[in-house]
What does this fold into?
Amino acid sequence: MAWLSSQTVVFLATVASSLTLAAADLAVVEGEKPGELVFVRNSHSVLFRQKREWIWNKLFVEEEKPTPTAYKIGQLESSRKVDGRRYEISGEGANSIFTVDLEGDLFVTKTLDREEKNSYRLTAKMFDRNNMLIERSGEFIVHVTDINDNLPVFAKTFNGSVMERSSPGTKVVQVQATDADDPTTANGDLRYSLTDDGDLSAFEINSETGRCRDWFFL
It folds into this structure.
């Protein structure tokens, strides 16, 4: 049977006490990278990693909206209650196009063009009054909504022909235009028609497809 001297017992007790104090003086917080844990010195109780509890609303900005002054488009908010919290944002347009105040209100400072860029990806962080990182977000997106600010254009000049005595309904030419507005909205919906220049009595065009054809014997 092994025996420990009184000096060894005292030493082990001292080591255990030091380890206990050291553990009590450390806090576990999320690092800069997703899933990364960092030990930091902490004067209060140990913090344990918790799931992220950001409350995101969909964020939208209308393109071409004037910005004589910055205006609010949403709010960064977490269900975790922290006294003296403050927010930081980073990513596309952070702290230039988009700013955030101490309450988490998100503002846009510039007029945006959806055809130039239709969305912005950002991240947010929340700190407590001691500048300790409390909440680190995943990515959130600010969408730029479309207005009907572009005219349809033809990429080239279309020329058609048809042989004489062709049957009614023979295809003469297929035209196609493009519109820079959002094609998933009515703003990007295209319709075709023939102008009043010239004799239109022998031709018609499909307003949706742009197919032009003759409709009686020529």
